[in-house]
Amino acid sequence: MAKKINVGNFLMRIEAIIATIWIFTTYTRTVMYFYVSVVVFSNIFNIKDYRPFTTAIGMNMFFSLIVFPMVPSSGEFNKNIWLFYAATYGLVMPLLLIITAKFKNKTINKHHGSQQ
Question: pTM of the entire structure?
Fold first, then answer.
């Protein structure tokens, strides 16, 4: 579309300008998402300084570019693997933690009840 734009026969071929604007906005959006992610993680773990998380989240972003170099590979992952991955970390792991906590609380309550 940018190749077809012609304004008064003097402003033509503005695809370079559009590409520059697109790269700048993508960079700005990525930086903002990165900063927000780092600050949110530091708030979740009650750490006042957000800088310890920058390396870890930055490496995560870098490796995500290796795992998903293009949008179709991300779609394939979402279609074939995401359900099992999300079920493991979103359902199985929390259930195991809940069961472990209940079991631990029962043993602690039995132990405290026998001492009194």
Answer: 0.52
